[in-house]
Amino acid sequence: MSPLSQLRMEMRENRRSSARGLWRGAPRKLGTPQFLLSAVLLVVLAVFVIVPVGTIAVDTFVWQAGDVRLSREAQPGALTLFHWQRVFRSPLTGHLLTTPLVNSILVGVGTAALSLALGGLLAWFVVRTDMPFRRVAGALAVVPYMIPSYTLALAWLTLFKNQRIGGTAGLFQYLTGVAPPDWVAYGFFPTVIVLALHYYPFVFLLISNALASVDTSLEESAEVLGAPRSLVLRRITLPVILPAVLSGTILTFSRAIGAFGTPYFLGSPVRFFTLPTMIYSNIGMRFPSTANILVLVLIVLSTILIFVSQKMVGVRRSFVTISGKGFRHKPVELGRWKYPALAITGSVILFAAVLPFIMFFWQSVMEYAGTYSFSNFTSAFWLAPAGTRLTEGEPGLLRNPEVLRAAWNSVRLSATAALVAAVLGSLIGYVVVKGRGTVISKAIEQVSFLPYLIPSIAFGAIYLNVFIRPWGPIPALYGTFLLLVLTCAFRNLPFAARSGVSTMIQVSGELEEAAQTLGAGWFYRFRRVVFPLTIRGMIVGFSLVFMTTMRELSLIILLVTPQTRTLTTMTMRYQEQGFVQFANAITVVLVVMSVIGVWAIRKLGGQSGGS
Amino acid sequence: MRVKRVGCMVLALLIGGLVIGLAEGQKIDEATRAWLQQVKVGPYQEATLYELALAEGEVTIYSYSSRVHNFAATFEARYPGIKVNAFDMDSGEILTKVLAEQRAGRFSADVIYLKDPAAVIAELYEPGYVFNYIPPDIKHLLPPHYREPLLVHHISLDVFIYNTEVYDSSPITNIWDVTRPEWRGKFLMPDPLVTTEYIEVLATIVQNADAMAAAYAEAFGEPLVLSPGVENAGYEWIKRMLGNGAVIVRSTDDVSNAVGAPGQVAPPVGLTAFSRLRDKEKNPQLAFDVAYGMGPVLGVEHQVVVAIVNRAPHPNAAKLLIQWMMGDDRGGWGYAPYHVFGNWPTRVDVPAPSGVPALAELAYWNTDADFVWDNYGKIVDFWTLNR
Amino acid sequence: MGLVDLRCVAKAFGPVVAVDRVSLSIEKGEFVALLGPSGCGKTTTLRMIAGLEVPDDGEIHLAGRRVFSAQERIVVPPQRRNVGMVFQSYALWPHMTVFENVAFGLRVQRKPRSVIRSEVRTVLAYMQLEDLERRYPHELSGGQQQRVALARMIVARPAVFLMDEPLSNLDAKLRTEMRAELKRLHRDLTATTVYVTHDQLEALTLASRIVVMKDGTIQQDAAPSTLYERPANLFVAEFVGSYPVNLIEGRLAVEHGRACFVHPEVVVPTEGPPSATGEELMLAIRPEDVVLVPGEVPPPAGEGGCLTATVKAVFPAGRESTAHVDVGGRTWTVVFGKGIAIEVGDRVNLFLPSARILLYRRDTGELVRERSAGP
Description:
heterotrimer; A: 611 residues; mainly alpha; MetI-like fold; 2 domains; 26 helices; C: alpha+beta; six-stranded mixed β-sheet; 8 helices; disordered C terminus
């Protein structure tokens, strides 16, 4: 046989064998723990995420009961393309879809960019420099997210309001006599600023977590080689924190395009409407199909963003910072920039956290709402016994057993949901990163993000409808505390999953493999190696879910029972009765509990996490 | 077209009108029919009802108003042994929750108490998910349009308001005034797409198109010429009002705070809930009042309805609770939380709260649930296109 | 059967074939280096032995046990293969002290506390780490981290040591030091070792056997001396050696009744009988085998060919200097001793001893004529 023909023959054989290997390879992987875990996660996500989203999608093709108000042809329950035509090809398209969509994207991009700048800068100051008071700053930097964003919107108007919407002019006009133009007072500009001040903590948490594990010797060696700081930042630091930056961008962008309250509050006076306005109003008007189509548009938007970021993270390997080579950690000396840095950090925290908090507290100790004077002080809304005239018989907050029970429920719900989400999120991060590039990994990453874009009230409604009756092996969960936990955990899963993914990317796979070659089984190495190395990321996920659940209202309102009433559900009651003081006092309590919760989990995690 | 509902209570007639009413046009199944048969009790005596309710031990109410907790407390005090499970949430949320429960056969709510009668009637009442119940002893004290198809607990009004610090009397006297150039950008109203009861207001304005046209002629001294493609004077008002730079805000208190804030030079006017006048008690600096002299009417009413849920697990306690909610001839503890500024009782024997004119003295438009329901989509689309 | 046995093992990542039907048998006590440029499949091969990659095809045996078989669908996971591995990044766990890192393998085996303590201490002492057991990895120097990684591997007493470029993260001085350390380790423990490297010097100095890989296939599997003296093909010839091998194209022709390598500038008689003449060949000769003949000094005795070249650069380096010369448009490296003084631009004579030349077919790159072993 000539060498050439032999070669050809081998090639043929090779092709055959590799083809055989391909289909044979798949079932072999079935047995690996990673694959089993992926499969389990997919099933869990299918039940708790795909089914709800699928419900939303299917509903858009079905005439709903309320649709008889839209069309005489509506036959509730029958299939139709009416809703899609209404949104995409009707005289309403521009008002319902195009203009709001463009506005939403603008708000999303603006907010993400500003959050990135603020969060990134603060994270760098706190984690990597010798700025004074960095520990305090680090603890306070996340507080703005605990404070309802409408407060900041209100504060903005207090400062920059002009006469357009009546009432008294803002402080700016009062002091300078110049009326701020509409674009400063209302619409895009203030919306972006307020949202960024509210959401930058996402970026802050993720980036400071990433920065904390960067080997400073990398940066130092580059500096020794004479590289200017900007270059070091661009070539060394930035690539390492890229996954965190992308996760932060995805979270803030998606939240901003999905935000309703602040954009509406600041935008409606100049008729600057975003997509969520249309979503919420259609939900409110009980036109769920129209709302669902717009939700799907938001989902597509964010999916594109995640897809792009997967591409960006997928091709590079430079993110591993916990590689098992020891690394050093030396703060950057700011020198004369020390105090400017402190000033920037301080003013962000002051305006976005401290002042609003003080306002809340102040407004909870006023006898008459809106009158800022010492003679107007009262502690009745906190401490009065039942039957006090001022509070129309309601006992003070701290004496009200119902409030205390609700507070306990809030903590219990938030902590449990956050724990469930954090554990799931870190498992998701594990299988997504381990199986990077595979279809299953991409699927899990995408699917776990979906709940983020479904409006809370819609999400709650879906869970109500799905879990009100037994569903396969799952009993009817309606009315149980467990359903509340699951709802909050899965709706906020994206926080935990994003932080899980961006943390896991930083951990070199060799660390786990080293344990594997030493004979450690999956559970052992997950417990002893993977878990301790990623606990910081889990804490980030936990904190975000905890803080969010603490303020959750519309998500759970359909699912609560009097026994599971949370603190937030009580604010509604007080607000409606005009007890601004009670409502504000509850907000104060919520913020304090969130701060304590986040602080406690860090302490706890810090101890078990070792380094 | 919807079946015209005649206020006749088929089963009730048989036993003296003392049971939950089943009206024509409601679709019910056998299980429900059996339940209706079983729970009808009578003749009515409070003591008997209490005894039966006591056996049930509790009652669950979904309420649009958080003051449910107040009347629940007085109810529990008055009828020891019956616990009230009170949920407060938006009217829309109540609809969603009851629909889900009914479709899944999870019968947990007894009473619902909410706004938006158009949706309640179309989505809950007609499919037989809720039933009307009128406490028999007060039936004669309720005007027919407030007891059928569903019992109306109380009504409130949406009205025009002005700033009393700058103006001695209302600067607007006709609904069309807000379309005049001098009020350009100086008229505020809540966004009907967000505060959806304002769709009822708009629908009622559209329904009274003839009166609107007449009011225009009165205000401008010439007949109204409709814009191309606009159907009637009601829609024309919406179009011109929006075209005149009306400021759309989120909620009723945004309107009253903007109109009533002190220290303004040229304060705006607005359309908001009558009950916002109550804010002045808690914040004495606010200076606004209702433009009582508005033509053609000072405002539009809103109804709040109460009903018993299909297959309610505690039907007798539910009846007792509704009885309690309707109060007595002077309001009573059950009604007390609602016997306030801005609400008017539907019982003719209960006087309006002190400080407000009796309903009979006010010129306002009634809302028509059927009309609202049938024109809802059209009005929403018209608003969306013109805003 | 060897201690480590790979039979026709193949692995592809998507469309890229990383390892193409590799067969390899390693005996107990051998120190085998897998050598090749990056992307040649050497690390994948190592990881398949460890079980960290699952091959697409073939069989793997470890210590007489079949740990992988595509046919029978057997995959023994890494934790049950009793192999030890040192990673390029060391993969020390940053949240554990040196002691905990090293003790990990024993803890997994559920050894009693006291046993763990004494065994870890012994190994730490052996690796000269006894004072550092409470430190965390980031408090150690690179060399110390490397020792910890080795200690962690040997304490678990694996049947095979697998090392993936363990020295590539160290500076030159430490690398020399650690090479000696690894030699000592292998000698003391007589551990079977598979060592992946792209550094041929490391492979030549450490290994008892070297497997050169390229594009997922084995190019040559031989003892270090054979590899150096008789590279099986042009790729190996070029890859192995401290200086790049010198090359020149030519043909095989018969001159004066002898088979000769013929190039316009030089004719070198070959040893052995004439074979197919006219064949397109590539002559390769190691720089140290080229004899530089300065000026008029007659060429050394013995068979060979002579050619003239121009000096392009000189690198004096004490006892043994090198120079770049131009040969028919190709740059050759030559090595010469202290006594010779040349300068850039000089014309020098180069003598190519017949006994030292290697001839490769230009079309396949295969060795066509092995030179006889030198004296």
